[in-house]
Amino acid sequence: MKAFQLGDRKGLGSLTATTRPDPVAAPGVAIVAPRLVSLISRDLQILRGTYGGDQPQERIPVSEGVGEVVAVGEGVTEVQPGDRVICGHFAKWLDGKFRPDIVFGYDIGVNQDGWLAEKVALPAASLIKVPDALADKDVAALASAALTAWNALVEMCHVKAGDTVLCLGTGGVSMAGLKIAKLHGARVAITSSSDDKLAIARELGADITINYRRHPDWAAELMAQTGDAGADIILETGGEDTMGQSIAAAAVNGRIVVIGVTPGKGPAIPDYVAFIAKNITIRGIANGSRAMFVDLLRAIEANGMETPVSKVFKFDDAPQAYAYFAAAEHVGKVMIEF
């Protein structure tokens, strides 16, 4: 089969086309033929050697996609050949509370081969059947950003109608968070350095948009636009250097959910007094479980939520897809079709 591998992980040029023997369906395993896969920020970080620790050059990348089951191993009852399926990239986290040994022990596209091959072996118990009513493009990009946003907003913060949700930037988690928050009747504020991207965010339902280049003190601008109420929930995807402004932008009893591992130069909590005085909760999360993914998929099916797509590349053009994604001029998902 055709596949791509990480290579020496020194940058975009490391992604290498290769061929591999077809994977065999071991007991408890299903072989899936990808139909459409989606790139996320950590796919770039892995290729640049800044995420995931040491990985073999032969590792097949990409953490999320949708595909068709083509074979199953002994004992598999969850799926059968012909089923269209998706899978969380922390594939062994089926349900229950976060446990590092379970969650990080089996990570598709990091310490396990990912989706950027003509066939991929996946734990059958981790797979979720896709309803016929949902298009490939609306489910291929759910496993990372959308599931993380669902965990943060629904599972962790119990978002409700009337809440104000602040999403930092227009990356995958923020855009998924925008749609999920609006689905629950919340008001959404979103930041970006691009007026064009903010215009797209408004088209997708954003109520407040702030250009942080025009307003470097974007927390003060948010306060001004909310009558000094602030944000009840903040999806903190900016990293350590934005935490101070997130605290300043938070409402009393606000919840800040830390997503991603972006390092910074300053102290993570520069205004310790405000953190205490507002009774703010700060909590980190790592994606979500299969049970959460099932709930997310049900919500998408019931409400007809669509995934914004920026551009779709052919499988053989995967390096160009990575380069387009790395340029960071897009809003919406960058996908590769088989």
Automatic annotation (TrEMBL):
Start and end residues of each Enoyl reductase (ER) domain = 11-336
PANTHER family in alphabetical order: PTHR45033, ZINC-TYPE ALCOHOL DEHYDROGENASE-LIKE PROTEIN C1773.06C
The record's listing under InterPro entries reads:
ADH-like_C, ADH-like_N, ER, GroES-like_sf, NAD(P)-bd_dom_sf, Zinc_ADH-like
Q: Which Pfam family is an annotated match for this chain, by its short name?
A: ADH_zinc_N
Q: What is this protein called?
A: Zinc-binding dehydrogenase
Q: Which organism is it from?
A: Endobacterium cereale
Tell me which SUPFAM superfamilies the record gives.
GroES-like, NAD(P)-binding Rossmann-fold domains
- Recorded GO terms, molecular function? oxidoreductase activity
